[in-house]
Amino acid sequence: MADTEPSAVRLLASLRERSALIGVVGLGYVGLPLCLAFGEAGARVLGFDIDRAKPEAIASGRTYLKQYAAERIARVYQSGLLMATSDMDRLNEPDAILICVPTPLTRYLEPDLSFVTQTAEAIAARLRPGQVVILESTTYPGTTVEVVKPILERSGLEAGVDFWLAFSPEREDPGNEFHTTKTIPKVVGADDEVSRQLACAVYETFASRTVPVSTSATAEAVKITENIFRAINIALVNELKVVYEAMGVDIWEVIEAAKTKPFGFMPFYPGPGLGGHCIPIDPFYLTWKAREAGMATRFIELAGQINSNMPQHVVDRLALAIDLRLKKGLNGSRILIIGVAYKKNVDDMRESPALRIIDLIEARGARVDFYDPFVPVIPLTREHQNLAGRSGVCWADAMSREHDAVLIVTDHDGIDYAAIVESAAIVVDTRNACRRAGLSSPKIILA
Predict the structure, then answer these.
(1) Which of 200, 278, 394, 434 is catalytic?
(2) Bridge partners, residue 430, by sequence
């Protein structure tokens, strides 16, 4: 780093010495684990969130995300290394500011960058020379330079000269105990060498490895590519499931046999639809940006259509099973859904296919109960506000109430699937959970 950049040299030194203050804006599924990782590595971290309940929970040693234990939060907070606030006027305090806010889609499948722009505006109003700002929110290639940079430069400061700017995609996998915030390599991209070095130094505080790339747009494209890869491959196995189903072939058995090949095949698994904040959403960010460049993304859009159709396919299979096995219609039936979180062993409801499945079932006149050990009450969501506040049933009621069918949507560990099969008239299993539990019964129907 050149001697003509003394503030950058000082910032680099303070980052490596862990004396710099790290700011994290957004204390959700990305921001909270980042705060814990920094604090546990001996760095001082100040978390920001406009939802006052989150800073208050951290200060009280409580958790609001089940996969992060209250004891862990309390330990880092009590060490004095972790602070949290809803006061955005304190954004001038951190030496590095990480933006970890949501990037949802509009109802027209277009990027909604309002959280990013509002955060950038809040930072710009307090930006001081010598800070490095890093966007982590998943978005289309070009966002850091085309959207965030101009907002920050309204402060009168110049990126790459007075402050530094980079992009590092979040790679969190809630509920994954093997790959954690500390062990997952951090990709870092910036449009000047100093910004890249400083951003790498921020993450070298805790990360097992940093992977620098040439530009912020490259780093943005890395994240989009990772999620498109998963979305397309999941769409492929979802389509194969429907095709093989019509042929009387078991897709789960096919995948188990195919993955014994030591090269040229990677197993992906079908399901009731995509959930989470990344896979169902991020591919459409590239689709939107590609249209701006006059390019079509037919493969990505087709995958989106296939995955979006899976909840309807599940409900159709459920209705057919009730019709054939019980000689009655879905209208007037009582259905128990097992698992409403978007994936197993988490309480995350973002984009969960279970919500659409509930709406589709009830639209056909059935009554729905649900049991989920991680989600006792359905929270408010953008697309399914009508379900907000609905409570699940307890396990005893789930097993004792008379349901016409049980529909397994989320395959949480620790659920007694044997008890479900024993008590239910029909079990429609979208995750192959029963057979993975060693169960075999004519009651089990794959969907």
Answers:
(1) 278
(2) none
